[in-house]
Amino acid sequence: MAEFEISVPSLRPARRRLLDKRNYVPWVRAEGELTDCTLFWMPVSQFPVREQEKTWIMEFLTRLSLQLSQSFDLRCEIFFQYKQITAELGDAFRRYSPKCMKLLGVGRQSESDLPVMPTPEQVKELIESGKEINVHDWIADFLIWFITKQPEEQRELFLGRGGMMTLFLPPDSKTVPPKLPVTPALRAAMPVFQKMDVDGIVAGAFAARDSFLEKSKILFGGGLETRPEYPGIPFVLPLLDSSHFFLASEELRSKWFGLFDVYVNESRIDKGVILAFQKESYEDVVLDVLESMRKDKMVYRTDTY
Question: Nearest to residue 109, comparing CAs of 3, 230, 262?
């Protein structure tokens, strides 16, 4: 991925006039320098987030997913940072894992390299030095892609931990599985359908053909091609916080949106959630979702806001 660079605002026509800031609450819309994309930030009180905040965010993402699917045929793909599977979350993750097909890729900030495991001699030297050892420093920023589409359950289990990324991608015909030629009676009679999620397995196999996988490596895997691990990495995605959007050039931002249409990420650095896209029509979707939630008396409350 190209280096971040400070961009000079272009003299292009301004995007549409901003609405009253209250229309976006609890989101805060970035103003000023970003003329080629829209960036929102929403604060959280802490990570893990409080239950009331989590309930609101889950409902927002559910409604946003539905609107983007119905109006623009975008599909929701959920990722989780491996390093955020803490001891507290470990049991829940292990219980859920057999129910869901997953694929492990790499998250990347700028052109960060993959860490190299220390030699036994280096480990011994660290121990003898008395310095604190953090094994996370030796592990890449792996991202778990939940191939099995169970967004509600995945959000219930993992959202609000500071490690969930949601991408909205255009449709890909290669990922659509064929309808199995099995009648309801045959399903009921065959034990395999009772013991295994056959439909989910087939869907997962076709999902692994997704075009975004190889495209992501082309866009964001620059500099890793010589690493021995590279051929086995299925995808590479950018780990972005709000500062990346302000520091990146317009060309680099366009590169990001060449892979995904909408980017949602829990950012510990920002102490909140960021939401970004380029197409102005998506802003109308966000506003419609927020209006529907206000009508349903769903209010976001946090002690930081």
Answer: 3
End-to-end Cα separation, the chain, in angstroms:
35
Q: CA Rg, the chain, in Å?
A: 21
What amino acid is encoded at 93 in this protein? F
Q: Where are the alpha helices (DSSP H) in 23-168?
A: 51-72, 87-96, 120-129, 151-158
Judge whether 63 and 76 are in contact, CB under 8 Å.
Answer: no
pLDDT tens-place string over residues 172-201: 998 887 787 788 887 787 876 676 677 777
What distance in Å separates the CA atoms of residue 102 and residue 146, rounded to the nearest whole number?
A: 5
In a 3-state reduction of DSSP, which class is residue 5?
coil
Local structure of 50: helix, strand or coil: coil
pLDDT band at residue 115 using 50, 70 and 90 as cut-offs: low
What tokens were used for 36? 């080629």
The tens digit of pLDDT for each residue in 15-67 reads 444 567 889 999 999 987 789 999 999 999 999 999 999 999 999 999 999 99
d(CA 170, CA 189): 38
Range with the lowest mean pLDDT among 157-161, 185-189, 208-212?
Answer: 185-189
Query: What percentage of residues in the chain have a pLDDT greater than 70?
Result: 82
Q: Can you give the pLDDT at residue 183?
A: 80
Residue with structure tokens 């999620």? Answer: 197
Pairing of strands 75-81, 28-29: unpaired
Return the domain boundaries, the chain. Answer: 22-172+210-295, 173-209
Could you give the C-alpha distances from 288 to 218, 254, 294, in angstroms and in order?
Answer: 35, 25, 10
Provide the residue type at 179 as one letter.
Answer: K
